[in-house]
Amino acid sequence: MTKPKAKGGLQLEAHKGETTAQTLSKAALLPTINAASVIEAYQANIVGKDTDLQAMVEALRDDVRNVQGGDLSRLESMLVSQATALQTMFTSLARRAANQEQLKHYGVFMGLALKAQAQSRATISALVDLKYPRQATFVKQANIAHGPQQVNNGPGGGFLTPNARAHTRTEQTKPDHPELLEHHHGERLDTGTTSATSRTDPHVETVGEIHRPKDTRRKSQGSAQR
Questions:
Q1: pLDDT per position as a tens digit, 147-167
Q2: Which of 160, 166, 82, 91 is nearest to 125 (CA)?
Q3: In Å, how far are 175, 180, 181, 182 from 185, measured between CA atoms?
Q4: Where are the alpha helices (DSSP H) in the chain?
Q5: Hey, what long-range contacts does 103-111 have (CB within 8 A, 24 or more apart)?
Q6: Which of 8, 53, 109, 186 is positioned for an S-S bond with 97, CB 3.0–4.6 A?
Q7: What is the enclosing helix (H) or strand (E) of 159?
Q8: pTM metric for this prediction
Q9: 112-149 pLDDT tens trace
Q10: What is the reported pLDDT for 164?
């Protein structure tokens, strides 16, 4: 396995069968190399230009391994440092805003100061979330649709549209026809046939035998002939 060198003396690992162009193309997509190149471009006014790009890449790889293993101490240190630096920027910009005599200049410096303050507060919030993760909250149902709806939280419950609710009320109030045609003991209702006179009460007789004439048709025909 060869180790071709990239710009800045960075040594890259090349797999068997890969060309130099392929190795450089893959290296250009590595997060550690990208981050190290950006750090090298911006840190000249901090520690100077005499830095080793290879050493920065290896240090970043160690940090990535630590995070993947569950060690977040470096990230916590980073967030604390950033929040402190942003707070320092807020203080400096706020003091410069106070020394301005023109309203326009005062607004510019105060706006930058408040932005630094907001970023510091956001960094502290990220640190708290990293240190003390929030527990997930599960919501059973959420009604976010417009218009009237009914939520049924019972077994097999869900959302019911107005048409579905009307259909449900119809089914609930719909009469049960078998109960109207049958007694509770399974006996059929009277279909119109005349039942025999009960022997338990001799004074009760069939209504037709007392009040109904024997042959109303012949009586009406005789009246018509007259």
A1: 666 555 555 555 555 565 566
A2: 82
A3: 19, 13, 12, 8
A4: 20-27, 31-42, 44-47, 53-68, 73-98, 103-131, 162-173, 177-181, 207-211, 216-225
A5: none
A6: 109
A7: strand 159-160
A8: 0.53
A9: 999 999 999 999 999 999 999 887 776 666 666 666 66
A10: 59
Question: Under 8 Å CB-to-CB from 148, ≥6 apart: which residues?
Answer: 162
CA nearest to 213, candidates 223, 203, 204: 223
**Amino acid code (one letter) for 25:** S
- Residue ranges in the chain modelled with pLDDT below 70: 1-9, 138-226
* Tokens representing residue 63 in the block: 């940090």
Partners of 160 in the β-ladder: 150
The pLDDT value recorded for residue 184 is: 52
Name the pairing type of β-strands 150-151 and 159-160.
Answer: antiparallel
Structure token pair of residue 137: 């909250």
Whole-number CA gyration radius for the chain: 47
Can you tell me the distance from the alpha carbon of 114 to that of 155, in angstroms, rounded to the nearest whole number?
52
DSSP state of 6: -
Residue that the structure tokens 């005789």 belong to: 222
pLDDT for the residue numbered 50: 81
Token readout for 163 is: 């048409």
Q: Cα separation of 145 and 89, whole Å?
A: 46
Q: Which residues contact 170 (CB under 8 A, 6 or more apart)?
A: none
Token duo for residue 9: 């003396």
